[in-house]
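Dear colleague,

Thank you for sharing your sequence with our group. We've completed the structure prediction you requested, and as agreed, I am returning the results in plain text so they can be pasted directly into your records. Please verify that the sequence below matches your submission; if there's any discrepancy, let me know and we will rerun it promptly.
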Amino acid sequence: MPTADRWIPPGMHHVWSIEDAELFTLMVPGWVDDGTVPAAG
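Please find the predicted structure tokens below.
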């Protein structure tokens, strides 16, 4: 997908949704609603 975007927090891996489920849960609405992501940490 040439126009796809991705975001992986620093220090996380491909399955970061399992590594930090809380951060992933916070990230989804921001990404979908306005393209922003929370700060990792």
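Summary note from our side: The chain is about 45% helix and 0% strand.

Kind regards,
the structure core
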